[in-house]
TrEMBL record:
UniProt lineage: Eukaryota, Metazoa, Chordata, Craniata, Vertebrata
Signal peptide coordinates: none
Gene (name only): Crnkl1
One Gene Ontology CC term in the entry: nuclear speck
Organism: Sterrhoptilus dennistouni
Keyword flag Endoplasmic reticulum: no
Name the UniProt record assigns to this protein: Crooked neck-like protein 1
Length: 680
């Protein structure tokens, strides 16, 4: 029993044991002593022992071919060719599929110049194992080395009947070319191409390299017509289903070498139009190089356009709803293509309708329709198709959720250009009925104004104001229309209706327009009345200043007292205003007026009313209620407010008394300072 089961401190591995055994040469046996044979009897005895050893090894395991080969090679070394041949034959009976055995057997016969025996072995080998290419290569090479060209050709022909792989055919062709048999090589190429064509009928992706090699073979031997014919047959054979860019690149380069530049250009364009863009990168690159070498400016531009078209196709294929890519693509197509191609691209683009019925997703998409309609009208000059485009777009839009006023207006303007006014009015009327919008009303009114149809304008304004009574601009435009037409009472009635609306988007603009209207009509009493009505609604400082300036601008004798009276009223009304800046603005306007038109007494009075500007500090608080520091700001103290509030005067006197007290205490604390001051 082992008490200490812990591992030893020094571990010995199996690799270490083997290394030490090799270093110490523990397993090496001493070489057997060299034996010198001196007579025939000893030689026969040696042969007997050796053969017995070989036969014993073969009996132990007949399938180990290396034992047979060693046995045969030993007999061959003794020049016992017949015995070696017998051993090889016995071995072939055991395993006739062993390639090495056939090769060793034939090599032995060739080394010993037994040509007929070697031919016999090669014939048996290629008959037994016809798919082993090595036998055929060795056999044909042997016949060629012996100068038996006809025999070698006969072996090649037997080989070709088995329809071997590509390299075998090229070996046969190279064999014929070595003996200048070009016609025979051409016939072999023809047979091989036909064989490959039949085989490739069942392939998904046929290979073009054999056709290219055949054509280059013809070109190399200066049979240019034959080479062109081969390329044309290849193009016809592969058709449009299995087009390969390598075939067209090779064909184009061949024609380029023959200085047939127009044929080259046709080949490249034919291929680029039919091969998928992602499979034609090399083709496009070679076409670009060709045009740069031999083409003109137009050809190079065509190449660039083709490349950009490919890029845009990839972009829209990756994301069909990328409308910016469609715009770029259409701009490119419109610049250099026929109308049918442009229409096709437009149809593809507008087919990508936004999946969500929200206006923000349609804003870019709608411009595809607009550009399409403009192209049909301006470029293609097809008014009928333009009308169809507009109508199709308007049918597509979900008007119950949203619409695009620009489409309706563009359609109406198009119909007017076609001198079809009823259709334009019908379109705009339909738009207002289906989906009324401010822009639609404005566009329709603008159209009728240009046509001088004022009754229609009035009706449209009425509909517009029923739809949007809070729109001050519409009220103003309606009143301006009536003013232009000379119907002042209607204009005034419109303004009165407008200011009586409970809700307006820009009431100050409306009131200003109404006041300006009355001033233009020189109805000053009505203008004053309007100002007073406005001041009942708002006490804004700008209204008071505007009223004062109005009073200053009208009348001759009473204008200054009236203006000063307005300022007086405004000042009284603004005392309760919390915004002190507005009150300051009023006083500054009043002072400007007095400086220009007032007397010294009025000027002195307004100077006394001007406030004092002082700097103050106030505490700031953050959103969470914490202390955010102090802020300095300017405040205004008006003399009128100070006089009305005696507490403020008392507070100022208290601050002055406290300051005097502090100065007297400081003097008492520092008597030397008083002495120095008295001496000085």
């Amino acid at each position: 029993q082992v008490k200490n089961k812990a591992p030893a401190e020094v571990q010995i591995t199996a690799e270490q044991l083997l290394r030490e055994a090799k270093e110490r040469e523990l397993e090496l046996l001493p070489p057997p002593p060299q034996q010198k044979i001196t007579d025939v009897e000893e030689l026969n005895d040696y042969k007997l022992r050796k053969r017995k050893t070989f036969e014993d090894n073969i009996r132990k395991n007949r399938t180990v071919i290396s034992n047979w080969i060693k046995y045969a090679q030993w007999e061959e070394s003794l020049k016992e060719i017949q015995r070696a041949r017998s051993i090889y034959e016995r071995a072939l009976d055991v395993d006739y599929r062993n390639v090495t055995l056939w090769l060793k057997y034939a090599e032995m016969e060739m080394k010993n110049r037994q040509v007929n025996h070697a031919r016999n072995i090669w014939d048996r080998a290629i008959t037994t194992l016809p798919r082993v290419n090595q036998f055929w290569y060795k056999y044909t090479y042997m016949e060629e080395m012996l100068g038996n060209v006809a025999g070698s050709r006969q072996v090649f022909e037997r080989w070709m009947e088995w329809q071997p792989e590509e390299q075998a055919w090229h070996s046969y062709i190279n064999f014929e070319l070595r003996y200048k048999e070009v016609d025979r090589a051409r016939s072999i190429y023809e047979r091989y191409i036909l064989f490959r064509a039949l085989a490739e009928l069942v392939l998904i992706h046929p290979d073009v390299k054999n056709w290219i090699k055949y054509a280059r073979f013809e070109e190399k031997h200066s049979y240019f017509a034959h080479a062109r014919k081969v390329y044309e047959r290849a193009v016809e054979f592969f058709g449009e289903e299995h087009m390969d860019e390598h075939l067209y690149v090779a064909f184009a380069k061949f024609e380029e070498n023959q200085k047939e530049f127009e044929r080259v250009r046709v080949i490249y364009k034919y291929a680029l139009d039919r091969i998928p863009k992602q499979d034609a990168q090399n083709l496009f690159k070679n076409y670009t190089i060709f045009e740069k070498k031999f083409g003109d400016r137009r050809g190079i531009e065509d190449i660039i356009v083709s490349k950009r078209r490919f890029q845009y196709e990839e972009e829209v294929k990756a994301n069909p709803h990328n409308y910016d890519a469609w715009f770029d693509y259409l701009r490119l197509v419109e610049s250099d293509t026929d109308a049918e191609t442009v229409r096709e691209v437009y149809e593809r683009a507008i087919a990508n309708v936004p999946p969500i019925q929200e206006k923000r997703h349609w804003k870019r998409y709608i411009y595809l329709w607009i550009n399409y309609a403009l192209y049909e009208e301006l470029e293609a000059k097809a008014s009928k198709r333009t009308r169809q485009v507009y109508q199709a777009c308007l049918e597509l839009l979900p008007h119950k959720k949203f619409t695009f006023a620009k489409m309706w207006l563009l359609y109406a303007q198009f119909e007017i250009r076609q001198k079809n006014l009823p259709l334009a009015r019908r379109a705009l009327g339909t738009s207002i009925g289906k989906c009324p919008k401010n822009k639609l009303f404005k566009g329709y009114i603008e159209l009728e104004l240009q046509l001088r149809e004022f009754d229609r304008c009035r009706k449209l304004y009425e509909k517009f104001l029923e739809f949007a009574p809070e729109n001050c601009t519409s009220w103003i435009k309606f009143a301006e229309l009536e003013t232009i037409l000379g119907d002042i009472d209607r204009a005034r009635a419109i303004y009165e209706l407008a200011i009586s609306q409970p809700r307006l988007d820009m009431p100050e603009v409306l009131w200003k327009s109404y006041i300006d209207f009355e001033i233009e009509q020189e109805e000053y009493e009505k203008t004053r009345s309007l100002y007073r009505r406005l001041l009942q609604r708002t006490q804004h400082v700008k209204v008071w200043i505007s009223l004062a300036q109005f009073e200053l601008s009208v009348g001759q004798k009473e204008r200054l007292p009236r203006c000063r009276q307005v300022y007086e009223e405004a000042n009284k009304a603004m005392r309760s205003c919390e915004e002190k800046e507005e009150r300051v603005m009023l006083l500054e306007s009043w002072r400007s007026f007095e400086e220009e038109f007032g007397t010294s007494a009025t000027k002195e009075r307004i100077d006394k009313l001007m406030p004092e500007k002082i700097k103050k500090r106030r505490k700031l608080q953050a959103e969470d209620g914490s202390d955010a520091g102090w802020e300095e700001y300017y405040d205004y103290i008006f003399p009128e407010d100070t006089a009305n509030q005696p507490n403020l005067k008392l507070l100022a006197m208290a601050k002055l008394w406290k300051k005097q007290q502090q100065e007297s205490e400081a003097a008492a604390m520092d008597p030397d300072k008083d002495i120095d001051e008295s001496q000085t």
